[in-house]
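Input structure tokens:
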């Protein structure tokens, strides 16, 4: 049983890496923001696995899954926020409409 779970985990990691590396950079951020909901579902599933009393190996793999899914969700939101800041409309004075810039005279 543990060999099957480990095989599925390694196979999913390999397929995920291959899929992500083939996405063009221009499409990466919109796809990332659209898949944050799917990553959230993965996070919930991994929490269920980590919390279920199915033995030590399942709990350890559940913890690894929770950590990986959390990093994926948080990273996705950070990257999406960064990309959205790149497209924010600039005001004629050079500001972005959020108030005085850091280091600028008040």
């Amino acid at each position: 049983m543990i060999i099957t779970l480990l095989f599925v985990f390694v196979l999913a990691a390999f397929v995920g890496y291959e899929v992500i590396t083939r996405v063009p950079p221009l499409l990466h951020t919109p796809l990332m923001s659209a898949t944050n909901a799917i990553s959230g579902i993965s996070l919930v599933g991994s929490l269920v696995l980590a919390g279920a009393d199915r033995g030590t190996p399942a709990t350890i793999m559940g913890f690894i899954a929770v950590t990986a899914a959390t990093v994926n969700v948080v990273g996705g939101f950070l990257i999406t926020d960064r990309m959205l800041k790149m497209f924010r409309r600039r005001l004629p004075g050079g500001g972005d409409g959020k108030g005085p810039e850091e280091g600028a005279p008040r």
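Helices lie at 2-21, 25-34, 36-51, 56-86. The mean pLDDT is 78.
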